[in-house]
Amino acid sequence: MKIPLLVFNDKGIYCQQADVYLDPWRPVDKAIITHGHSDHARWGHKNYITHHTNVPIIRHRLGDISVTGKDWGEMFTINGVKFSLHPAGHIIGSAQVRVEYKGEIWVFTGDYKTEDDGISVPFEPIRCHTFITECTFGLPAFKWLPQSETFDDINTWWANNKANGQTSILFGYTLGKAQRILKHLDSSIGQIFTHGAVENMTEIIRPLASLPETTRITPETKKEELLGSMVIAPPSAHGTVWLRKMTPFVTGTASGWMAFRGARARRAIDRGFVLSDHCDWQGLLESIKATGAHKIIATHGYSDIFSRYLRELGYDARTANTQYEGESAEVSGAKTAEDNVAEEEPDGIKSFLKP
Question: Is this prediction's pTM over 0.70?
Fold first, then answer.
């Protein structure tokens, strides 16, 4: 029986011919890393290969590691297997991994999105035979508005809060989401402050992207300095004593999960902005079609539902278990993605599937 070019085992996605893992979740000798989020770039591997813009990011997160940076489309061969990295558009430095051996081509997306966010290199569809896709938001209920509309809402919200003498606190992932927000804030409204974790990561990314001036919040920062300003903080800062000096404040979260009505309430957030660094339903379907692949492997997200729908479209689709989290950590205390749908859109899972 022929062994597939890539297999899923207890350490990660494995290419036996090259003895290389893609985004492994347990320590291995050689790992190709798609991007810097902690569920994909983990500590403990002997050797890391990633896109060169991701090198300073994972070094900042993981410390003194042995890492090699590659350019977009640069081919490197390991034991006859050809590998190359291609833009995923997820966050800055994020890549898809193209794997070719004896004319067979697989592509592993890691995490990706199709909208050009203005800070990461836009997603590039790669022709292949087998496509490994995330499906974090793999339901038709997820349909993103153009980000320009979302950032118009964010900037209007900030301006209104300032007029009311309130500080605006917007929560988003330290790596990726925070810098995307910063890129599109209207700095003419007021001063932009950052939580220390956000500022640390932003300092690493500044040489790679044009971002507005920010000010780190320290114990010496006065409450009066913050009034009317915008504060960018990680979701973990919500509900902590760190927020006390910012009173009176209004909170907001930028996440794809804000598409669910109950997510904002469960998070005790004043305002939710639907903004994701992952594909929506249509983005997933269009990306799969653009690859020309017939075999599809759906990983983290609504994988069972999504793969079933793909089979109804005629694809040879299946699921595979991984330890990737997608955007789940952005809603602290939230239930599983399936529970969200079951509670808020009881017919949402079945309505688009044939009986």
Answer: yes
